[in-house]
């Protein structure tokens, strides 16, 4: 099966709406072992959409279209799909009942003739119920070709894909598919790609795909086999080789939904603290409470997080953390020495197992010492042992503060893994 994804909507071409549907569908189709040949975006124009279908079917057997199923005159996707396959329309009573129920639940008092347009279905179509909106989805089949129509709103589209389209597509394969995601921190995409190049160059089953996100890299491993167990064995064998190469740069394996906040580093670190019954205290200067806020996102963190304070000024560093004035005068607030005294001070306040302190220059201007923008010191404490990491980040003020917070999370993660 070769698929082209077509997104319909002039608003997409104008940049008024960010197209998240193609990213979601591409990921889901890849997990099913289905290749996406091309992404196409077309406006609400009859002739251009017909031309798009002609081009798509000259190279593919399946076209999945999102958008253009609404009740207004410029919603023309269904009409173009029916025209391409030479189908007439009929009034689908069940869809109309569901549309009326949906309108009633939404509190709208009037129903117009336009609404009936959504209940008009091409002859011979498979109708896909929309549990989140009014526009039903449609599958049209013609010999070895098929068009799958889904609504444009992401919530409606995702629900319809999960409940109706995925099971439909799975029928075209006798194989089972399993995907796992590996999340990395502390290694760039290009370096990771170099280290596993021999695997990428010779991949067959399982297949691998790298994704870059701000500050981290994700790797998807997808295996196909006659059974789920066989898929898992193929993935585990590949994963073992990757773990030997990447070591502690891997912070999570699993997490099927790579966009889920529960699979992000701050939730993973918070989970490790809770799981290992470790307490932590945090002192922040340039990160301004961001690090503490990230951990607080995790439900149940109150059992581990004893304290998080922002000591932005020199006066605060002295009074709250016990940093020596002579240290600040001699080395400056952005220094290894100051970071060390900050973490010592925050650790003593409530006698936590782990402590972390951040200080640095977020920009846009340097400080009086002339140290570069992006210079950050992250001090960590674990039951008496202290380590200070010096790192430099490139970017604007917002990015530097975020990267520093995430780097501190990774330092906490490494401490926990090393000592538990």
From TrEMBL:
Pfam family, one: CinA_KH
Source organism, top-level taxon: Bacteria
Domain MoaB/Mog, residue spans: 4-171
SUPFAM superfamilies, alphabetized: CinA-like, Molybdenum cofactor biosynthesis proteins
Stated family: Belongs to the CinA family.
HAMAP family in the cross-refs: CinA_B
Protein name: Putative competence-damage inducible protein
